[in-house]
């Protein structure tokens, strides 16, 4: 008998994978910090195994985020905007309202998370913020936006 994976467990798993990637933790390194096997981390990330409350707390401590981070963006889950989030994680709260209305919310959220997990996304962000001149950074951002909107 194959059990269906819960959408909540899948969402939490994606958030674990996202943070693990952003923090540059391998599955093995995270597993060691948690005192479990890397296979268990894989199961958490796929949502095939549910993450218990104490394990979720440990993950939040290791990855340096509030526990609520794992539920942000989940349909029906709301928190006070920005409460308890470190400045660098505040951007994970939500996208523009127009964007949310134009497409189904679950699909749009999944796409944003997948984009953040791409290695070149992190590389691009690091390169962008290594530019010291704020005016140059803004010009680069405007240039990228202009290219992205071309037909």
Automatic annotation (TrEMBL):
Entries under Pfam families matching the protein: HTH_3
Domain of life: Bacteria
Region entry Disordered, spans: 88-107
Entry-linked PROSITE patterns: HTH_CROC1
All copies of domain HTH cro/C1-type, residue ranges: 16-70
InterPro entries on file: Cro/C1-type_HTH, Lambda_DNA-bd_dom_sf, Rad_response_metalloprotease
PANTHER family (alphabetical): ANTITOXIN HIGA1 (PTHR43236), BLL7220 PROTEIN (PTHR43236:SF1)
UniProt name for this protein: Helix-turn-helix domain-containing protein
Organism (species): Bombella pluederhausensis
